[in-house]
Amino acid sequence: MYFGTTSNSNTSYANKISAVPHRGKTLAKKKKSRRVPWNKGRKVGPREPFSPSDVTRIKALLAKRGKVGLRDLALFSTAIDTMLNMPDLLGLTVKEVRKRNRVMRDTVELAQVSGGRARVRCPLSKATMRVLEKWISHSEKKQNNYLFTGRQSGGITALSTRQVNRLVKAWAADIGLKVDSYGTNSLRRNRAHPY
């Protein structure tokens, strides 16, 4: 027995302790707060791949935008062709897709990718090579510049994965797809056209 109570009492030891005065103050019972999980209501896990018809519709949408949509069209086409991880795709420089004599390469060759593999070769379609060539000449990029840069940074820093994720969701919304089902991995989960 604690504090003169009987053993058949319904009150627990913790309740008895919380009511005991401690240095002039009564200890209050701690309430357990329920933490809301960070992913509550969000779709997590693998994203849906774009179908070949979705790819065609997005390319047509970006091509309609003209010079304003040129960077996005080049980014989208390169992502679909190479199926690279976002850090590897966003780390591409002009010299990796264009030779010194300004001739476009038909294969992108990366020395080391984020997955740990040593060398990766990714073929580019002729349509993607044409779009990349237009983008590089329009943006006046030099050999060591990143291919896909933000607009606010003056064309110096590469886009972030989060920025590309926002772009992918906007493209999906523009063609009437469910935005939550698509993300950056949707660009690399399928090859949309045969070579």
Describe this entry's structure for a reader.
This protein has helices at residues 13-18, 52-64, 70-82, 86-90, 126-139, 161-174, and strands at 21-22, 25-26, 107-110, 120-123. It is mainly α and 195 residues long. The chain has a domain at 52-187: Orthogonal Bundle (hpI Integrase, Chain A), CATH 1.10.443. The strands form two sheets. A two-stranded antiparallel sheet has the order 1-2. Strands 3-4 form a two-stranded antiparallel sheet. It is globular. The relative contact order is 0.16. The mean pLDDT is 81.
Descriptive keywords:
single chain, 195 residues, mainly alpha, hpI Integrase, Chain A, two-stranded antiparallel ribbon, two-stranded antiparallel sheet, 33% helix
